[in-house]
Amino acid sequence: MNPCMKCWCRAYQLAFRLAMPLLPYREPERLESVRDLPPLLERLGVGAVLLVTDRTLRETGATAPLEELLERSGVRCAVYDGTRANPTVQNVEEARERYLAENCRGLIAFGGGSSMDCAKAVGARIAYPGRSVNQMRGLLRVLRRLPPLIAIPTTAGTGSEVTVTAVITDSRQKHKYTMNNFTMIPRYAVLDPAVTRTLPPALTATTGMDALTHAVEAYIGRSTTRETRRLALQAVRLVFENIEAACQNGADLEARRNMLQAAHIAGIAFSKSYVGYVHGVAHSLGGQYNTPHGLANAVLLPVVLEAYGPCIHRKLRELGRSAGTAAETDSDAAAAAAFIAAVRDLNRRLGIPDRLPGIRREDIPVMAAHAAREANPLYPVPRLMSAAELEVFYDAISQ
């Protein structure tokens, strides 16, 4: 990256870091069980909601207890279950039409990050009926209050129930982009481990590694605070201690609860300290090939950490001590190498590959350009890289 661009990126990041304490970030009110929803909706005066979810969850009956609970409580529940793994502009528009047709007054997102991102974007379209989704991409384009939004994560990974971000795919352009607005933080988050119990081991693994990626990128960046560092360290410890148990036994509600907590606090950490090139590259893979976000993050994380080099060794040592992979006497370099090796080994034990099929060499320059535009100048990464430098990561994980 040329010196002028580096100066611009660091100046932009510094300005945003200085402004962060003045920005209206808030955490959602936490509920412990879906059974808490009827009295909440009664208090809000919401008699009709749109449940945004995906077809698999609906067909397997995962949403049935919630739908029945709302019906018994006199709350009319319309359902949109067309959300894709990487939600599209079309998904948002279809869900919005359903919301309006059913005269809904609130949104419930039930699922992983995709359902929550779709619901956030629907809320933005309700708040701004005259704007397209594409017109609201980027930073601080959605300032109006959204309809009441309740997030119920069924995966312990994205932390979307606490973030300012919605990630949407433009299918025509094969491009994935973010909408970042403080108004898009859900007002309520239901962290109920019971709804994560039937999540298959493979999805438990990749979404859990997504949470780990959030914590790590929030910690190694240049816009951390004492609070975000504390939360990131805690999240890393919780993931390393619980992810395998959660994968091996879906009925282990303690492990499931701890993974939900890890995802939640990692979400708070990266909402305030941001992510880095792992996410930029992963989003471009999702836009081009519909690669699941958690899978892309898991595969990319050790590769990108290694590429950053010595500038993050001290921070990786601290993460390693929290994860239990580094001893007090280890040097920064040795502890960093041990932490990266532990991430790779954890991926292997969870059945996550170290390479992804189907990446075409001719697509890489376009994807790298998308990743660079997303990350620079916003993400306060440890070491700045240009689009040409980011191309290396696609080659590194290609089969």
Task: Explain what you see.
The protein is of the alpha/beta class and 399 residues long. Helices cover 53% and strands 10% of the residues. It has 15 helices and nine strands. It has helices at 3-19, 37-44, 55-59, 64-72, 89-101, 113-127, 201-220, 226-248, 253-273, 277-289, 293-308, 313-323, 332-349, 364-375, 387-397; strands at residues 29-31, 48-52, 76-80, 106-111, 138-139, 149-153, 165-170, 175-180, 188-190. The strands form two sheets. Strands 1-9-6-4-2-3 form a six-stranded parallel beta sheet, sandwiched between helices. Strand 7 (165-170) and strand 8 form a beta hairpin. The two termini are 28 Å apart. 51% of the residues are buried. The mean pLDDT is 95.
